[in-house]
Write a structure and sequence with these properties.
binds NADP nicotinamide-adenine-dinucleotide phosphate; 12 helices; alpha/beta; eight-stranded parallel barrel; two-stranded antiparallel sheet; about 325 residues
Length: about 325
């Protein structure tokens, strides 16, 4: 099912998924009231405000406390207004409590996760399921790609992906089996600047996290580079958060960035920043020049040799267009 989005927000194609996503998405790792996060009313308000603002892409995970449950409670009746991405590999009990080790890289865990996520979110399918930060070795040893394909075949997800960072990201992309990658990137965390371009050029969709540098929760260390680069003077009338977000949106490989917030005024500010669009080219170039003097190393792509880290060839799957309607019942799986 495709989403009809009437929005003033910029829209991008999420790589080979073909999904037309708002470049400003929404991340729901906001915590529970018991650990300082929003209470139920605040969560209901912000989730609905996100959709009211025209944002059509929401990211969650079994790991994010009550996030999936709240999506089910408060916006599942609006499921036709947003694309939904969750994660798997998360080691939680049936009550949602996180267990040790934090992730389990087995086929069984992936299947349990998606089954339980769909129940919590009161939906028949997600648009994307992403493995939550495994290594290439864990994916190979656990034979997890066939498990993801089985989940897709059963109609529980339309597309498959990985949340990843260097050094695993390029080898994962080179497997040519994943539709999307979730990767951290912003002006204050530029490590993957070249890598996401390469991954996008290979046809995958890019979901950028950390796109606002974690805002006012980013911590001094993260903002040191900003201060060393003297970006306040370049930002002029923009707040540093608006500047960082628009810097992220300026990267052509940023198909969507899933900025999280529990504050309606921050959501409004982020929507306005996204509407204002990428930074002017000259400002963006100047910011990069100044940031280059701060010593942050960008992961280089020219030294990467495709397939060097694979122990065995991975069966590539044929490219597919956007499939038709979903909503298949659960078939062929075991649970909980
Ligand atoms: N490995 C993974 O796969 C992984 C890891 C982390 C996160 N994620 C995903 O990525 C999403 C984004 O999280 P992130 O950690 O990457 O951080 P982020 O989106 O860069 O920043 C989120 C933080 O920024 C603050 N913020 C938002 N708008 C602001 C504004 N206009 N002014 C000042 N502060 C603002 C929010 O605080 P307020 O609530 O106070 O506004 C929130 O704490 C998560 O929700 C989750 O979906 C995935």
């Amino acid at each position: 099912m495709e989403i009809e989005t009437e929005t003033a927000l910029p829209i991008r194609k999420l790589g080979r998924t073909g999904l037309e996503v708002t470049q400003l998405g929404f991340g729901t790792a906001m915590g529970n009231a018991s650990d300082g996060g929003p209470d139920d009313d605040q969560a209901e308000n912000i989730l609905n405000a996100v959709l009211d603002a025209g944002i059509n892409f929401i990211d969650t995970a079994p790991d994010y406390g009550e996030s999936e449950e709240r999506i089910g409670k408060y916006i599942s009746h609006r499921r036709d207004q947003f694309y939904l991405a969750t994660k798997c590999g998360c080691n939680i009990d049936l009550g949602g409590k996180r267990l040790e080790p934090g992730h389990l890289w087995t086929q069984d865990r992936l299947q349990r996760n998606i089954y339980q996520s769909l129940i919590r979110m009161k939906t028949d399918y997600v648009d994307i399921v992403q493995m939550h930060n495994p290594t290439v070795e864990e994916v190979e040893q656990g034979e997890l790609v066939p498990a993801l394909e089985q989940i897709r075949q059963a109609g529980k997800t339309r597309f498959i992906g990985v949340s990843s960072t260097t050094p695993d990201l390029l080898p994962f992309a080179d497997m040519d089996v994943f539709d999307v990658f979730q990767v951290p990137y912003s002006a204050v965390e530029r490590t993957h600047e070249q890598v996401i371009q390469r991954v996008s050029d290979m046809g995958a969709g890019l979901i950028i996290r950390g796109g606002i540098g974690q805002g006012h929760h980013g911590g001094q260390k993260r903002w040191d580079a900003w201060e060393r680069a003297k970006l306040d003077e370049l930002a002029g009338a923009m707040s540093r958060y608006e500047f960082v977000l628009r810097f992220t949106l300026s990267h052509v490989a940023c198909h969507t960035t899933i900025v999280g917030t529990t504050e309606p005024n921050h959501l409004r500010a982020n929507v306005s920043a996204a509407q204002a669009g990428p930074l002017p080219r000259a400002v963006n170039d100047e910011a990069k020049e100044r940031l280059a003097t701060t010593g942050e190393e960008l992961e280089k792509i020219d030294s990467y040799t495709p397939s060097r880290r694979f122990s065995a060839p991975v069966k590539k799957r044929p490219r597919r267009g956007v499939p038709g309607d979903h909503g298949c019942p659960f078939i062929g799986f075991w649970w909980p």
